[in-house]
Amino acid sequence: MFSSIKMKSSPLASIDRFFSGIGLGGGTDLKIDNSQKVDQNETLPTKTPVSPPVNAPVIGIIGAKGGVGATIFAINLACAFGKKDKQSILIDCNLQQPDVALTLGLSPKYNLCDLIERRSRLDEKVLSACCERIEFEKQVLEVITPPLDLESSLAADLSVLPECLERIQPLKEVLFLDLPKQLDQNLLSLLDCCDRIILVTEPTISSVSGAKRWLSVFSDLEYSRADIAIAFNRSGKNLKQMEQEAAKALGLKRTWYLPSSYNALEQSCLEGTPLVVSHSKDAYVKSVIKIAEELEAWLAPGAGTGIKAEDKSDV
After folding, report:
1. pLDDT mean values, one per 10 residues, the chain (315 residues)
2. Which residues contact 172 (CB under 8 A, 6 or more apart)?
3. Among the residues of the chain, which ranges form H helices?
4. Whole-angstrom distance, CA of residue 214 vs CA of residue 3
5. Three-state SS at 34
């Protein structure tokens, strides 16, 4: 079978003939071009190393139960970061109840479903098209919301949203997620994307019980308690004892308080304007701005563990 294959002459034989021709003074005329000599002392240009893109931290905001004001808190917190010249974005992950759009009176042309469909080529242009950019006098709020019609929302595949978040992170400085309260695989996937979790509750027995349940869920999922904070909404002097007992029972290092501001919040919702814009001197706004400052420090390297509980021994 192999007898028909002709062996080529050895490459070494050709090299030998080449150099033998030079040595004999005939057969090969070798010319060397010295017109462009390299200066040995000349510094060769070096390529500037390209730093890898920094992924923005993801902040998940979830209510201990319905009606505790988690969405309004998420809107105002994201807007407060916009006031600090941070390129932040708020993503409403509640497909069945797009509260962010309803609260701000938005009717987006493109929405979260469009973003999910175009995830394979998600870049700044696609993100900008699917994002509602609301500019105020000193703040900028960028929002991505689900479609307002239920049929489109139910058809969306929320399981691929973590893939979208990975593509958005290099494009922004902070990502805020208004998380759904349905405990399913989609929520678990989104929680896994979060660097910090803020659990919003109220100083009431039912709300605190709901918060304890969520903390138990986070513990079962082996999330570090150092990466979780509690925000007591609608707090007040009359509830101070209840708040102290609740904070002690929940046992988290970071506990924040948002005073009740019902009338101002209702007015801001009617205007479709975040409270941090329309009522800058309100006590609720001052608390949100203080939380934003503490959150920024909390996001600094080493401020939280950033790891799951089983890896603590390696820190």
Report:
1. 43 46 46 50 53 81 95 94 82 90 90 93 94 81 90 84 95 95 92 97 94 96 96 88 90 94 89 88 94 93 54 36
2. 56, 87, 88, 89
3. 11-23, 70-83, 99-104, 112-117, 124-130, 150-155, 161-168, 185-193, 205-220, 240-250, 262-271, 275-278, 283-298
4. 77
5. coil
To which residue do tokens 């501001």 refer?
261
Nearest residue to 103 (alpha-carbon basis) of 303, 288, 266: 266
Amino acid at 59: I
Q: pLDDT of 39-71, one tens digit each?
A: 555 555 555 554 556 789 999 999 999 999 999
| Closest among 41, 36, 76, 89 to 282, alpha carbons compared | 76
Domain boundaries, the chain: 58-300
Q: Report the predicted TM-score, pTM, of the whole model to 2 decimal places.
A: 0.79
Residue with tokens 């030998």: 16
The CATH code of the domain at 58-300 is 3.40.50.300
Please state, in angstroms and rounded to a whole number, the distance separating the CA atoms of residues 91 and 60.
10
